[in-house]
Amino acid sequence: MKTVAFSLSVLLCLGSGGCSGQVRYGTDVLREEKQISLPGVEGRIDHMDVNAKAGVLYVAALGNNTLEIIDLLNGKRIHTIGGLDQPQGVSYISETDELVVANGGNGDCYFYKARTFDKIATVHLSSDADDVRYDAAEKKVYVGYGEGGIAIIDATTHKQTGDIRLPAHPEGFQLDKSLNRLFVNVPDAHMIAVIDLAQSKLIARWNTGGLKANFPMAVDNQAHRLFIGYRHPASLVVMNSITGVKLFAGSMIGDVDDLYYDSETGRVYISGGGGAIDVFRQEANGWKQISHIPTRSGARTSLLIPSLHLFVLARRADGGSEASVIIYKTSSR
To answer: Do the Cβ atoms of 196 and 181 come closer than 8 Å?
Structure first.
């Protein structure tokens, strides 16, 4: 197995979860375009989603109990949905032009009209509603929640139609319709769960092999690969999604919370609270880090928007700095 080679100074920064004076490189891969301030937004910021056709970004401001709606083209906030309870996951449903927001505090999943922001339905889960994925083909919303469950919600009727049991709370998870599988990071059980979508049933448990805190995940449906981000130690792991065999492991930025695979360019984009964005690309002898963009400590949630060639990073308010989202342009080559 090949690992990525770094200079000693970069390794020290990554291993400690970020430090000042990090080496910046790969700005041709990821170029900052603008910053959009979110005055009044306090506390932690969690997941994001986008209506790419309209250029509208949705930001779950967990610590502020709001959903922030941002016009990407004009670079400004256009609306705030309040009255939430620790919003964590958000998904835009294009077929119905609706939003679903998962609340970690009360476990409720709220559905809203995306144009008017009117609440139209509530699905109550037992606790800690977290990450959200939408299956457009089946019109199903999957929500990780509680001490070990993934709820299945009909996106048309707004009713819960199923439940998949897990041994502990699910973090990042991804659908692979080519295999009819759902892959789930379950860090407290030190495993990656493999779920058969036809049966809505756990069919395999892949051990994390000594690595801990597997939070974000991305999937390559064509080449059948999973990309897993671990916090202890800070590692990017690539796995075969059919066999569970590990294909690569290498160091990356600490306190990872989001990572994405771009099928067009073959790159993996990673954001970590250690204070940087890392980008990897596959080469003949393994995966190579091609970009390291220092950001701010704690800025760990992000969103890749391939159709717009954008990467969005959320930064919480810190000291005298307001909360903001930073918009980066991704290169197409």
So the answer is: yes
